Amino acid sequence: xxxxxxxxxxxxxxxxxxxxxxxxxxxxxxxxxxxxxxxxxxxxxxxxxxxxxxxxxxxxxxxxxxxxxxxxxxxxxxxxxxxxxxxxxxxxxxxxxxxxxxxxxxxxxxxxxxxxxxxxxxxxxxxxxxxxxxxxxxxxxxxxxxxxxxxxxxxxxxxxxxxxxxxxxx
Length: 170
Ligand SMILES: Cc1cc2nc3c(=O)[nH]c(=O)nc-3n(C[C@H](O)[C@H](O)[C@H](O)COP(=O)(O)O)c2cc1C
Description:
Number of domains: 1
Number of strands: 7
CATH topology: Rossmann fold
Distance between the termini: 8 Å
Shape: globular
Bound molecules: flavin mononucleotide
Structural class: alpha/beta
Helix content: 40-55%
Strand order of the largest sheet: 2-1-3-4-5
Order of helices and strands: EHEHHEHEHEHEEH
CATH class: Alpha Beta
Radius of gyration: 15 Å
């Protein structure tokens, strides 16, 4: 099973990247960052004029080749960072069922809710793009809740590990 981890932060020094890198290591998933796929802001006019950018086709190809996905979605004003939403808009134009695989959503923030507003919303949305969401985990208070060996709260850690194992076993 090829599992892909998509790190959805627009920041180089990203706490969500740290969280998803730990998660990916638990099941030997490949990690890619949305930052590595720069693209213009989606518009139907630009798409008509120039087609899908090569970077977005490349991201789509990585997603299409995967059997499972870990998607780290930081929360910006209750939604995903604009860079991630933009990438989702582009790849959904290549194939509306771009997320047709078992998917684990992760998010974290320095605040207590950990991005739960956005994670809950996208757990409901992603099935429209084909995903089977097998887990959605928002880790609040990152700087207290995450250590050198991942989440420090045993029950939360076990829940995340259980979801990750589902990706591996189908
Ligand atoms: C524009 C902006 C909006 C934000 N909105 C939220 C929010 O709605 N909820 C939240 O928990 N944190 C919010 N934050 C704080 C982020 O959780 C914090 O910046 C976090 O480090 C983002 O994750 P990252 O480091 O992986 O990019 C916001 C940060 C920025 C820059």
